[in-house]
Hints:
Distance between the termini: 55 Å
Structural class: alpha/beta
Strand order of the largest sheet: 2-1-3-10-4
Number of strands: 13
Amino acid sequence: MKIVLGSRGSKLALIQTQLVLDKLKKHYPNYEYEIKVIHTKGDKILNQSLEKIGDKGLFVKEIEQQLLNKEIDIAVHSMKDMPSTCADGLVFTDTLESADCRDCLVLNRYGSLNDLPIGATIATGSKRRKYQLLQLRPDLNIVDIRGNIHTRIQKMIDNHYDGLVLAAAGLERINRKDLISEYLDPHIFVPACAQGMLGIEVRENDPLYDMINDIADKDATYKMKLERTFLETINGSCHIPMGAYIEVIDDTIHVEALLGNEEGKLIRETCIFDKQDALTQMQQLALKMKGQIENE
Length: 296
C-alpha cells in the first residue's frame, strides 16, 4: 500500500511534509510513501494582499479537494495558516513536535527593533504582526508582502526595506536561523494560534487518523488544541488580527491572548487557568474578548 502526502511546493512546505513522512516511515516501514506537490490559489497570486483575494482557505482548498477525492491520503500544512474549521469530511490528527512559536525580525542593516531609525520600513502580510509592531513602534512604515520565505527575503532586498517579520519556525526548519536578527517575546508580541505546529489532515474515519495519533507529540497537541480553541471560538480569519500563546506550567495553563479589529484596535488578556478546565476557560476567554472588540 502506498500513502501519498499532499504538500504545497515551497521549500518549507516540502520539509514539513518530509518530517511527517519520515516519522511515519520509521514507525510503519511496511508502507510505501510519496509526496505530491499541489499548487494552491494562494501560491499563484502573489501581487495582492490576502485581504483582497480571500482568506486562509486560499492555501488549502485545492489540497483538501484532492484529499476528499482520494488523490492524496494525508495533507500537511502549517497549522497557523489553517482556517478555523476543516472542510466537511476531513479532520485534523494530533500533531508532531512543535518548532519555535515566536515571530522574529529579519533586518537588512540593523540589529533589533529598537535599533531601527524613525520611519523605518518593515514588511509583513499579517495584520496581527502589523498592528503589534505599530503598538511598539508607531513611527514605522509597514508595507504588505506575500510569498514564501525566500521570495519575501528577496523582495526585502530588492525594495530596500529595512526588514520583515517571519515565523521563527520557518527559518528553523529550512536551516536559516542565521537570518534572524531578533526574536520577539511571545508575552509581548503574541504569535498566531498554533504557530510552529504542523496541521496534519486526513479523511474522517480513515485508519491513518489513529496511526498518526499514535506517533504524535502529546504536549504539542495539547497546546495546539487550546490555541485552536481560541481561534475556533472567535471563528477567526486572516482579516482579523488575533493570536494566542500557551505555556503549560505544572497544573496551570498560562495564556497570552490577542484580538483586534480591522482598524487596528487591539485588546490583550493575560490569564492563568487550571489545567483540568482549560478548554472551557479558553472558550470563555475568546467569547469575552470577542464581545469586547465588537463593542469598541
